[in-house]
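User: I'm new to structure prediction. If I give you an amino acid sequence, what do you actually give back? Let's try with this one:
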Amino acid sequence: MTEPSDEEARIMPDVRKDQDVVAVILEDHRAMEELFRRMRNVEADRAKALEEFSALLIAHGEAEEAEVYGALKRFKGVDDDEVEHGAEEHADGNKALLALLEVDDVGSEKWDERLEDLVEAVSHHVDEEERTILNGARENVPDTRRAELGAAFLAEREKQLASGCGSVQHVRAVVHG
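Assistant: Good question. You get back a string of structure tokens that encode the predicted 3D arrangement of the chain. For your 177 residues, that looks like this:
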């Protein structure tokens, strides 16, 4: 594994390759919440925070869907319907992200409104995912398997980040298929 660039180091939480997938996902969630705080702060570099958030959200969601959700559905005690619902909520969050990315003026009322739509969509998903999917995984998936899933999640997330997944063009492609 290569060392992350300065940009990746800022948006990627400090995780070890052998870390439990539940812990890795939770760290990403906390990083997203911090980026929300920066995007809401009129004194912060809101455009830069959005750029970091966009990359993290897309990489995180793509990695969950590619490496984690399908694997978790194989375990008793992990709610399959919630896993499917989680993927639907990724799509909702991605649409809200695209709507925000398409606003030019980070100081405008329209930007603030779309930011709150994004915060609402992502926060709702994070809350549900933590209460249902991740608790189910923590309780029903063996530690070794969670570590394997963590490594797979991190590898896919890193691949997504390296591809420039947070660009408005890429987000548009994700949203519109």
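You can read the tokens as a compact description of the fold. Here is one thing that stands out. The chain is about 75% helix and 0% strand.
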